Here is the input.
Amino acid sequence: MGDNEATGQPGGERDERCALIDRLVQLQRTLGRFLAHDRSTPLLASSLTMQQLKVVVMLFFRDASSGQHLARALGTGLGTVTGIVDRLVAQGLVSRREDPTDRRVRLVELTTRGRLLAEELIDAGTSNYTRLLGRLDTETLHTLEKVMVKVQQAADDMLAGNTHPAP
Here is the structure.
């Protein structure tokens, strides 16, 4: 069998890696379905649209952002973001303020109510995940931690634009 030009791996190993990745993706989907099964989560109780939820979560992790940044992050136009932000302002979840470094720019940031909603959304998922992890033995938790550290490192590499996988 020939080598995989991208990874330098023999074909059999490449096939095994592809099959493993497919199984891991399927396991992740199953886990996601389990975690989404709890209908009491604030996400399902929310009346916000998906775009509005995305803005709330983005602002939670970034603090204040300009409309231009939000538009790029959402892959939409500034006019669309203005409408989304207007509706979030009307619900008391975000506010607008002048950028102190450039008075022409308006920054959007979460209000206390918006921050509480974002925390509730994030904590709900964390709570279910914590309960699930609590059912695993200590050795398995140590193994999972090692694996997750490697996954996080790979994600960091991807975010940094590193196109070569770590060995």
About this structure: The first strand starts at residue 65 and ends at 66. The chain has a mean pLDDT of 86.
